[in-house]
Design goal:
Radius of gyration: 16 Å
Structural class: alpha+beta
Largest sheet: 8 strands, mixed
Number of helices: 7
Strand content: 15-25%
Shape: globular
CATH superfamily: Glutaredoxin
CATH architecture: 3-Layer(aba) Sandwich
CATH topology: Glutaredoxin
Number of strands: 10
Amino acid sequence: MRRLLLAGLALLALVAAACGGDAGARDAAEVFDGVALAAPVPAPDFTLTDTEGRPYDFASETEGHLALLFFGYTSCPDICPVHLAQLAEVLAQPGAPANATVVFATVDPARDTPEVIRRYLDRFDRRFVGLWGTEAEVAAAQEAAGVPVAIREGDGESYTVGHAGQVLAFAPNGLGYTVYPFGTRQTTFSHDLPLLAALRSVDDVPGTAG
């Protein structure tokens, strides 16, 4: 189910980009190597709890930052560690955006306590933000971000979770222009993140800001 979900999400994003009728959408598709959205979308409005136990309002906490949002879980066998490792490597490169914030929100709050999330993220980058919430809060956050709510698959303690596999990117101006499905190359992130980081005003045009 997870593979079908991911393939469907990637296809929908590609179709949205291809069907965008305005010049801004076409420009974004030409500028970015990632999957360009048909039109920019505002950063989602949701609040979860960070690994220090503090409320974390995603939109306000990431204001003025390049925000990379990913919904996953620490027992994930493939998608989550690949995305997080890629982002850690890209952001460690010389010249990488200094204003980038990676936010990992668990979709498995029953097993992913704040302590578990923190230990997991520290394997990649201690600066990564980890978020937790109740089942209802986590579901609401996914809905706010426009991704399908994760589905538990299997029984017992070794269950897996079918979840959205894309990284959502939001520029410092609070708008999202691109998504990055599972399978995105590291070079794509390296190309796109500086371009996104330069978009500080809602009037900035991708590829011309700097």
